[in-house]
């Protein structure tokens, strides 16, 4: 076979693999290269170690099936790292991996959407990863499940690896730390365990709440922490709650976890959720309309993992039915009764929720009154109408006493700024949006 023909076959295999498993497909698959295809073996070159791990863990079966379908033969697939020439290394490529460091290729800072809910955690992860041990030590990131803790911690590892060539980084879940500790005791190899964790330049432990009620592991971690800390090495931890709220955690650990910076992550706002859906779609090499991204962001509010799951369900339905992704299809995929169109939001729905909340009347909103107690609810109505409906600025102004479009625009940007700078306003807008999207349609 000519080299050209083999390259074409490889391109077909890639396309088939993408079609077989859209949920695990990523844009960077386009950077995979053909190493060899002969004697029933397909070698695929990967740009970095995290890509190799990702493909081995998630895509081996899919690529095997794709290769067999395209060639008509039994094929064994192997993924290999191809070292890149220095001048080809993009900003995303680590120079040298710490031995055994396993990171998810999606979990980089580039792929993380920053919003008011996670800004501090994001900024502090960036700061520590660029200068280990010098800024916040330890850095403690906490938040509910599915809000991006693991993503941020791994992004810090990627960044440290990229910026500080040769730094020894250890990333592991607390469960893994405990299991390895137990194994080291069983095997009588505590010295090996100590040298692995107490000599790192950066130790990152995810879900540290797992230490609760594990007294011996807490004792071990206490000494690991002290050694690293005293040597100026970076420690990053995550948990589902702040240090003091983790039950049965020794006081001396709680106090150490508070020595550096404790950064919380809150559930993302509507705007952040829309941006995340778009980012995730982009990462998979897919594009979805704003309307669909907004629909998903309305539908799933508390957990980003579920937001991603919703996107996957929509793509799964689209690929299995061979249909284009429309709002209708998205609704079906997410199990919504489409006929009743229960979630259609009108400006009247918004006005009803806002007037109830502030205990004012519609006529006040529509009047020329400019007192703060009326102006703010009016501006909030405009902002919500702009974000939750597809009405134009003029139409929104029309419903609120015939205001012109520049007034509406000014109101929207004023409330958006307040939302960014004032957590109370952020929470209020979320609460109102929730009532509007989940409540009964208002009677007109
Ligand atoms: P946690 O560790 O807090 O339970 P993860 O870090 O596992 O949450 O995040 C769950 C999913 O949500 C991951 O796929 C992650 O990439 C995604 N995610 C969370 N926050 C963001 C964000 N701000 N931008 C992009 N993706 C995010
Ligand atoms: Mg996690």
Residue stretches low in confidence (pLDDT < 50, at least 5 long) are 89-95, 337-342
Order of helices and strands: HEEHHEHEHEHHEHEHEHHHHHHHHHH
According to DSSP, the number of beta strands is 8
Supply the CATH class of the largest domain.
Answer: Alpha Beta
Largest sheet: 5 strands, parallel
Q: Can you give the mean pLDDT?
A: 89
Radius of gyration: 26 Å
How many domains would you count in the coordinates? 4
CATH architecture name of the largest domain? 3-Layer(aba) Sandwich
Q: What percentage of amino acids are in beta strands?
A: 5-15%
The CATH homologous superfamily of the largest domain is named P-loop containing nucleotide triphosphate hydrolases
What small molecules are bound in this structure? adenosine-5'-diphosphate, magnesium ion
The portion of residues assigned to helices is 40-55%
Count of separate DSSP helical elements: 19
What structural class do helix, strand and pairing data support? Answer: alpha/beta
Question: Termini separation (Å)?
Answer: 71 Å
> What is the CATH topology descriptor of the largest domain?
Rossmann fold
Describe the structure.
The protein has 444 residues and is α/β, with parallel strands linked by helices. It has four domains: 3-88, 2-Layer Sandwich (GMP Synthetase, Chain A, domain 3); 109-264, P-loop containing nucleotide triphosphate hydrolases (Rossmann fold), CATH 3.40.50.300; 270-339, Helicase, Ruva Protein, domain 3 (Orthogonal Bundle), CATH 1.10.8.60; 342-438, Chromosomal Replication Initiator Protein Dnaa, Chain: A (Orthogonal Bundle). It is 53% helix and 10% strand. The protein has helices at 3-20, 49-58, 60-71, 119-130, 149-163, 174-186, 190-198, 215-230, 251-257, 270-283, 290-299, 304-321, 327-333, 347-358, 362-366, 372-388, 393-399, 405-421, 423-438, and strands at 33-38, 41-46, 76-81, 139-143, 169-173, 202-206, 234-239, 261-265. Strands 5-6-7-4-8 form a five-stranded parallel sheet, with helices on both faces. It has a three-stranded mixed sheet with strand order 1-2-3. Helix 8 links the parallel strand 6 and strand 7. Helix 10 (270-283) crosses helix 12 and helix 16 (372-388) packs across helix 18. The N and C termini lie far apart (71 Å). Residues 89-95 and 337-342 have low confidence and may be disordered. Residues 149-150, 206-207 line the site of magnesium ion. Adenosine-5'-diphosphate is lined by residues 106-107, 111-113, 118, 143, 145-151, 276, 279, 304-305, 308.
